[in-house]
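Render MFS transporter in 3D.
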Amino acid sequence: MTETAIARPQTRRVLTASLVGTAVEFYDFYIYATAAALVFGPLFFPSDSPSAQLMASYATFAIAFIARPVGAVFFGHFGDRIGRKSTLVASLMLMGGSTVAIGFLPTYQMAGWVAPLLLCILRFGQGFGLGGEWSGAALLAVENAPPGWKARFGMFPQLGAPVGFLAANGFFLILGLVLNEEQFKTWGWRIPFIVSVVLVGIGLWVRGRLTETPDFKAAMEKAPPPAVPLGEVLKNHWRETLGGTFGVVACFCIYYIATAFALGYGTTTLGYSRETFLMVQLVAILFMAGGIIWAGYWSDATTPRRVLMWGCALTAVLGLFFSPLLGGGSLLLIGVLLSVLLLMMGFVYGPLGAWLPGLFPARVRYTGSSIAFNVGGIIGGGLTPMAAQLLVSKGGVAYVGYYVSAAAVLSLVALFFLRRQAED
């Protein structure tokens, strides 16, 4: 397919829908991570210890990762049985609705124990919706890709992560510049959650104009959809599911160390202002976007697996430099570490849109890739900010680097042993 064919309206619509949808989802997900690092501790978990408040806030952050595999099974079931389009719309509505509702929650001071309970329920709703989002967006892109273009098509939903991050952190940065501390803690933090309703509306409008993917149509013409996609995945594709699960651990670990943990550590332990540290992260996230694009082209020139393995190997080495770069407290060195770390994130995340769905046949691809991606999210990201905070308090920031290196080695081993790509 030529560059002209790639620019056709239908193709542009597919790629835009895969990008916009995941950008909205990651915006919703990351404004929670930012608020958890900055304000949720004192607002929802009163305590004499700021560290204990932050740990409790990070614990609610982990709830969504527990919900994501549940959402993966649910949305994967319908995505493999009735199609990608309607499932994607439903996941976006659930995620967006939960996010908007968080913006209207009472605090502990207003409602007592009911407030953190409601926060946990809505956080579960966020995770449940996101459990069906990523795989559906990735399939939308790669199942419409011509031969030789799967990784470049698959990088579009991956670019939703830095786009959503830029929108979320940019919003919080603007609020920090125009509001004083009291205004931000009282009501300003709610605005990014409530405004999400506009972004969700845009995402629904874009996705509502799509048609079903060619791969799904072809799979349905070959044979009826599986009655229980999960059963077929666990019976016939358990090796791919297991390998895919551990293959994605590194990307989740990197992302939430460089974003949620780093923000909390920088604004508490190191004492930087919220606005200063957010600006550093906004610059660093551009390296992630560049890494995703680089990885997309590199993967089509070689293989997604090879790029992922290089990314994991380089990340394992980078983890050894956390102590001098982050522990010293220099803003310049912190910026260098976060930029290089997020560049590596591009290498271990960008190719996943092509690699992970490629492990499964189309008839169970939504379920298989969703389960692997989201269970890997629990292992790599669910408890990572809280574990990193604990490691810092017990042994210092060098141990956070070792944690990142260990996650990278785990994914590298999984990639080494998992070589098969599915053939329909």
